[in-house]
UniProtKB/TrEMBL annotation:
It comes from the Bacteria. This is XRE family transcriptional regulator. Coiled coil: none annotated. Residues 5-58 form the HTH cro/C1-type domain. GO terms for molecular function: DNA binding. InterPro entries: Cro/C1-type_HTH (IPR001387), Lambda_DNA-bd_dom_sf (IPR010982).
Length: 200
């Protein structure tokens, strides 16, 4: 998993034989140490002792898991990707990304992952889509009992809007969706249902 012993040896121009002499073990044992470090089976105490014999010390630290480290979107990366798709004229892809962002948000379990997901994104240039993403995150936060950040509070749109529909829907269809739409979205004049937030 790491190669700290070999890299430290090379930095200090120390051969396997010289390190073996310092640790009072065989050169073959040094090769075994370096191999066990690469596969992640070396003991921390052994790694520290080998590095100290070279003239270095082992420092360890932990860091919070981020959405990126788990290959998941955050609100920031979702907004960037949605902007890209809208510039390319692909509203279907923008809707899929919005849905996927909510799915990824649901996969955020630890407080550090949730906080990382909820950091304020840059604006989406189309205000309808910007309001959709913010409202979707606010809606899902409330459902999960998570305090929604202030940036997710947006004013309602000026007219009713159905995401992903490029033409004006018929009055009958709009009324049909309106009857099934989530109240949080209706307050923002966005005609979308909970089922529309299943991963596509």
């Amino acid at each position: 998993m790491t190669s700290m012993i070999r890299e430290a040896r090379e930095r200090h121009r120390i051969t396997i034989y010289e390190l073996a002499e310092r640790l009072q073990i065989t050169p073959g044992a040094i090769s075994h140490l370096e191999k066990s470090e690469r596969v992640g089976t070396i003991k921390i105490a052994t790694l520290r002792r080998a590095l100290q014999a070279i003239g270095e010390d082992l420092e360890m630290a932990s860091k919070p898991i981020t959405m990126k480290s788990r290959h998941l979107m955050s609100a920031r990366t979702a907004a960037e990707a949605i902007n890209t798709e809208l510039k390319a004229g692909d509203s279907d892809a923008a809707l899929r990304l919005t849905t996927q962002a909510i799915d990824h948000f649901r996969q955020a379990k630890t407080s550090s992952e949730i906080a990382d997901f909820l950091r304020k994104p840059g604006p989406i240039e189309d205000s309808n889509w910007d309001t959709l993403l913010a409202t979707a995150i606010r809606w899902d936060s409330k459902r999960r009992g998570i305090k929604a950040p202030g940036w997710t509070k947006r004013p309602p749109l000026r007219i009713d809007w159905m995401p992903g529909v490029d033409t004006t829907p018929s009055t009958e269809y709009a009324d049909f969706i309106r009857q099934q739409a989530e109240p949080e979205f209706l307050e923002h004049r966005i005609l979308i249902r909970e089922r529309d937030f299943t991963t596509r």
